[in-house]
Amino acid sequence: MGLFDKRKTEQSIEEQEPEHLSLNDADAEKAVKTEKEGFFKRLVGGLTKTRDQLSESLNQIFHGHSELDDDFYDELEEVLIMADLGLETTDRIITDLKRRVKEYKIKEIEPCRELLSGIIRDQMMVDDSAYDFEEQTTVMLIIGVNGVGKTTSIGKLAAQYKKRGKKVLIAAGDTFRAAAIDQLKTWAERAGVEIIAQQEGSDPAAVIYDAVQAAKARHVDILLCDTAGRLHNKKNLMDELAKMRRIIEKEYPEAHCETLIVLDGSTGQNALEQAKQFREVTDLNGIILTKLDGTAKGGIAIAIQAELDVPVKYIGVGEKIDDLQRFDPSRYVEALFADFTVRSEIEMLIEEDNDSWK
Ligand code: GDP
Q1: For ligand 1, is residue 45 a contact (CB within 6 Å)?
Q2: 106 and 216 in a common domain
Q3: Reported pTM
Q4: Which atom of ligand 1 is the closest one to the Cα of 180?
């Protein structure tokens, strides 16, 4: 397999054919190409800090050793842990690497690089059905502690679904903070979608009830529900989320209910711990991992997939409305592990990659 895995199966939201492109085939193709370039550039750009740290350390290891000995594996282990892949995942990766090196009778250092990225990619394959909900009538419960990027992610998702022709409604289910309601209203306006909100302090379940009725009446495709982000009392949280789910199931049985947890990627292993705690109180369908830009802890995406067995479905790589992408493990690993030392090399790779989609 070449440097870029040419898989087309898990297209990002931005990679889907935009609907407005019907002028002529050449224009449409050019616009799609530009959009794909933008998508991959944003991913590469967003992961700069993790990539810089990883590729520099990996370069040192791969160029500084001539043999696949214990020193090589020890240093590799250290680098992966530093990138926040976590002990358990790192251990699994190194064990697998040693096994494959033996199996393929590899004696050289360099082929190990591609082997390593392949092993890491294998740790996090997202099931093909992970995004089926986007094509169904869906109520999404967005959960997570305050500050992780829930509101921002809801706004970004709303805008992107809308761009793809979906009818979207937002429910301001975090009624504990007036600021949360106002902020969500701003995002709804920015995304050009409607919002159901009540006063600060009102019953969140009542907001969800109203929103579900509105979603049914307005033939909404995707209802995005914000929820309060408190973790201090597990029982309260569990009861509240269960109550919301009951309302959705009772009032809207034909809709699919998708619970996504938002985690702040820049907190590294803490994000993994939070996901574990939330998993104890509710079923999780997936993860939105935010703030991967501006952190060198991007390896956490790999640790989360490998250790939790809950797929990362979207990643946030910036604060702008377009900076949320579907998570594509192949591209993520390539964006992290490719030896992007020269700017022109990045351009060349992006071009090669886009050519392969024609
Ligand atoms: P909430 O309390 O969970 O709703 O968090 P917010 O949505 O208000 O986000 C908290 C802060 O994180 C805001 O300043 C956002 O702009 C910022 N933020 C959210 N997602 C991202 C991201 O992917 N990258 C960056 N750099 N900042 C983000």
Answers
A1: no
A2: no
A3: 0.83
A4: 4
